[in-house]
Design goal:
single chain, two-stranded antiparallel ribbon
């Protein structure tokens, strides 16, 4: 699949917006995130490895990846974060529509009045929206703007030096 997500942060005296273009295929993912500073960070995760670089870098840093790496590099809560929620802190759960998608909705109240809200699309199983409130102030919002599946055939996951790590076949693989 491919999707674009928008992330908005608010803090006392300011706000910031980031936009991430995410592509995922066959256990591989690539995320290109335009940061609030105007710099784009790039990452590829696949085969339990992670590559990371910024716009003008000629080489990527390489390291180990785990099941949370892809979501963390998108600056979104992970699926595991939602599964690990303390059920005693869940204050609401329901099916509802969010941004034109049928979703599972979960609201969690944490420490010091922090409230997290998650919307998981029922058709994809992906987190498609999230919000965090500190009191009455929304301090974080994640919104999925575009979604397309399968990923277009021939989409290349390559490093800044041109090394191709993966190329999409454009075929949807059924889940087991």
């Amino acid at each position: 699949y491919s999707r674009t997500i928008t992330l908005q942060y608010s803090w006392t005296g300011g706000t910031g917006t980031m936009t991430a273009q995410v592509r995922a295929d066959g256990g591989w993912s690539r995320c290109d995130t335009l940061l609030a500073s105007g710099v784009t960070e790039h990452s590829i995760v696949g085969g339990e490895r992670l590559w990371y670089w910024y716009d003008d870098d000629k080489q990527a840093l390489e390291g180990e990846a785990d099941q949370r790496s892809q979501d963390l590099l998108q600056y979104i809560p992970t699926y595991e974060d939602v599964l690990d929620l303390d059920t005693q802190q869940i204050t609401a759960a329901n099916y509802e529509e969010k941004n034109g998608k049928d979703c599972i909705f979960i609201e969690v109240e944490g420490v010091q009045g922090v409230v997290d809200r998650y919307w998981i699309a029922t058709d994809t199983g992906l987190l498609c929206a999230a919000e965090t409130y500190e009191g009455d102030q929304k301090v974080y919002e994640m919104t999925e703007n575009q979604f397309q599946a399968p990923l277009e055939a021939g989409t290349v996951f390559s490093l800044p030096d041109g090394t191709v790590l993966h190329e999409s076949s454009g075929v949807t693989v059924p889940e087991e």
